[in-house]
């Protein structure tokens, strides 16, 4: 399975996927890491593991579509079959989604459909929920919507800060994202009526 990763930040989810591949748990290879942030730690991690990477500057493109076309060109050139968004902080347009229907995964640090959008961990704290968590899903045209693949829950402690809760959730992200990609690589995921069936 040929994977392309889109990442804007430090890349710890990317790292967990790299580790899963290098340990043999995931039968796949990362063909390309694309970032819209030239300082992204994710680019450093790719280089360290001899994975092709590129910084694509959105400001270099007239429109969002031109920017996305550039990303798609790079991904198609590498025959990428699964696009993995790992802390990619831009919304993909319907144009991009159409290129890769049910071939784009995203991870979000909440138990969707609760707390979509930014600062999901803070949203959970502010609401006062006792259970939080993270979700891996197929991306669709919406924001943090699309068929849910895997979720993991964590306890919210009464004195939690956003940072402590985010760290507890991140530990689970690093478990469920590689697992979701392993299932996909082994062709064990099927989307039926907008719901994901795991054939394991
Ligand atoms: C993670 O919390 C993920 O849920 C969210 O952005 C963060 C990415 O972290 N989408 P990293 O760059 O993978 O460390």
Automatic annotation (TrEMBL):
The entry's active site is 108 (proton donor)
Q: Which InterPro entries match?
A: Formyl_transf_N, Formyl_transf_N_sf, GART, GART_AS
* Record-marked site positions (Raises pKa of active site His): 144
Could you tell me which pathway this protein works in?
Answer: Purine metabolism; IMP biosynthesis via de novo pathway; N(2)-formyl-N(1)-(5-phospho-D-ribosyl)glycinamide from N(1)-(5-phospho-D-ribosyl)glycinamide (10-formyl THF route): step 1/1
Q: Does the keyword Transferase apply?
A: yes
Pfam annotation, one family = Formyl_trans_N
For the keyword Transferase, the answer is yes
Protein name per Swiss-Prot or TrEMBL: Phosphoribosylglycinamide formyltransferase
Q: Which organism is it from?
A: Halanaerobacter jeridensis
Gene name linked to the record: purN
